[in-house]
Amino acid sequence: MSKRVMNPATRTAAVALAAAGLGASLVAGAGSAFAAEGKAVAPVAVTASAAVAAQAETQAHVAAQVKAAAAKAAAQKAATVKAVAVKATPVKAAKKAAPSWVKPVATYTLTASYNQGGAMWAHKHSGQDFAVPVGTPVKAAGMGTVVKAGPNGGGDGPAYGNAIVVKHANGTYSQYAHLSKIKVNVGQKVAAGQQIALSGNTGNSSGPHLHFEIRTTPNYGSAVNPAAFLRTHGVSI
C-alpha cells in the first residue's frame, strides 16, 4: 500500500479555506444571535412605553375626577351657606296700614252725649263731649281737608269757641270745638290721627273738654250720632 503525500502548497490552501469557512460561520452565527436578541428586546420596549402611556392616562382621569369632586363639594358648600344666610335674614314685617278713622283724643272721660237734653243747649246736644285737660292734643278723626278753622266756631257761632271742621272723602264732616289752640289752616290736608289742635275751654263751655261732631254738611244743624258713626268704622269710644 502506497502512502499519499499532500503537496505542501495544496495543504496550506486547504487550511486557509477551512479557517475562512469557520470565520464565516462564526460571523453568521453572531449575526443570527444579534438578530434574535434584537427581536426579543423590541417587544419589551414597546410594552414599557404603552404602560407609561396608560399610567399617565389613568392619572389624568383620576385627577379630573378629583377636580370635579372638589368643584361639586365647593358648589354644595356655597349653596348651603347661601341657604343658611337666606334663612337667617330677618323678613321685614309687612307695614301695617294706617287706620282710616281714630279717636279724636287718646285719654278722656265721656260726658255729654249726642242728642242729650239740658239747660246748656238751646236744642238737644249735637255731639259727643270728651272731658280732657286744657292743652290735650286733638287729632283729626279721619283723613280730609280743613274747611273751617278759627274763632266764633269757625263761622258756626260763638258757642263753639275756637273750632275746626274737616271734610272727609266719604262726604261727611267732623267738627272739633272749644279749642285752646288751632294748628291747621283752611285748605290744609290732614291724615287720620294727625294733631290739628289743643283742647281748651273756649265758647259756651262748662269746663275743659273737646266737643266732637260728625255732620253731613260743614254747617251747624246737620249733625249725626258721632259714637255710632265711629263704631261703623271700627272705632269704639
TrEMBL record:
Pfam families: Peptidase_M23
Highest taxon above the source species: Bacteria
Keywords annotated in UniProt: Hydrolase, Signal
EC assignment: 3.4.-.-
SUPFAM superfamilies reported in the protein's UniProt record: Duplicated hybrid motif
InterPro entries in UniProt: Cell_wall_metabolism_enzyme (IPR050570), Dup_hybrid_motif (IPR011055), M23ase_b-sheet_dom (IPR016047)
Signal peptide (from-to): 1-35
A GO MF term: hydrolase activity
Domain M23ase beta-sheet core as annotated: residue spans: 124-226
Protein's name according to its UniProt entry: M23 family metallopeptidase
Phylogenetic placement of the source organism: Bacteria, Bacillati, Actinomycetota, Actinomycetes, Kitasatosporales
